[in-house]
Here is the input.
Amino acid sequence: MNDSPVIGVLALQGDVREHLVALAAADAVARPVRRPEELAEVDGLVIPGGESTTISKLAVLFGVMEPLRARVRDGLPVYGTCAGMIMLADKILDPRSGQETVGGIDMIVRRNAFGRQNESFEAAVDLKGVPGDPVEGVFIRAPWVESVGAAAEVLAEHEGHIVAVRQGSALATSFHPELTGDHRVHRLFADMVRANREAESL
Here is the structure.
């Protein structure tokens, strides 16, 4: 079991439980994270979907925003879905008042780009790094990536819009793979966390 990475899910708002289940299915030890001391004990972190402005404000309120920024700068593997993608963007095109991000991926993100809640949809997404059939993407008030910098790699697009990006140990998707029962994206992230842990132990 010592090969199983400890991966936290930022448990301030959003679909935390579904991510915990998906991570466990991907052979990770999954834990909710709300406080700096819990953040310090994980090998990687998922920032779930929800409402990015609310997650941002709660992260500041709970005292995890600055420690999280510091750990991401130091190479902590992070994976953001939907609102989590917005949290990992270095820049938001249309931020709400007082909205902050963790940063970590050189990209500009547009909030709610695919429309409102009633315009949610599912689509097959060819995701680089995930073997087999396309991933079923669940898009709920989803953002898209307007542009990426040289350090960021585009992993997937939908209808000409960037919906998955990776930069080093940071991964982000516009969609929610935790809602589909297909755990391949979480397995990809767990493998990224393992590789990072092995590199740090050398």
User: Anything to note?
Assistant: The longest strand covers residues 161-167. Helices lie at 16-25, 36-39, 52-61, 65-73, 83-88, 184-201.
